[in-house]
Design brief:
By secondary structure, the chain is an all-alpha fold. Helix content is about 80%, strand content about 0%.
Length: about 120
């Protein structure tokens, strides 16, 4: 059985240049390609994990900021709810006290103009 000449040239390199290409450069190229693919996938997974952790941390910080910003209006609304109940129950005699408690920085102003209440 005779092997065709083109097959013989591919499978059996004759010159030093052909041997270098087939036995040194091709295996190195294959190895580096496989290592690059696995390295890329590993780095991609690590970066995706870090990105998701960073995104969750930013979302948690934003939620905390929003919650802290809403805390003060929530306290004011609860105070106003208590004030409203107090006014409905006790009547108008407590309005000056409500004014002082609600606007503590303006308590002097409220006491001077208490005739409006």
């Amino acid at each position: 059985m005779k092997v065709p000449s083109w097959r013989k040239e591919i499978l059996y390199p004759k010159s030093l240049q052909q041997r270098t290409i087939v036995f040194v450069l091709v295996p190195i190229f294959i190895f580096l390609t496989i290592a690059g693919v696995f390295g890329y996938r590993a780095v991609r997974n690590i970066l995706l994990e870090q990105w998701s952790e960073a995104a969750l941390a930013k979302l948690e910080k934003s939620a905390f900021d929003i919650d802290s910003q809403l805390q003060r209006p929530k306290q004011v609304l609860l105070l106003l709810e208590g004030i409203t109940e107090k006014v409905l129950i006790e009547g108008s005699s407590v309005r000056l006290e409500i004014c002082k408690r609600t606007f503590s920085s303006f308590s002097l102003l409220c006491s001077r103009f208490s005739f409006f209440f």
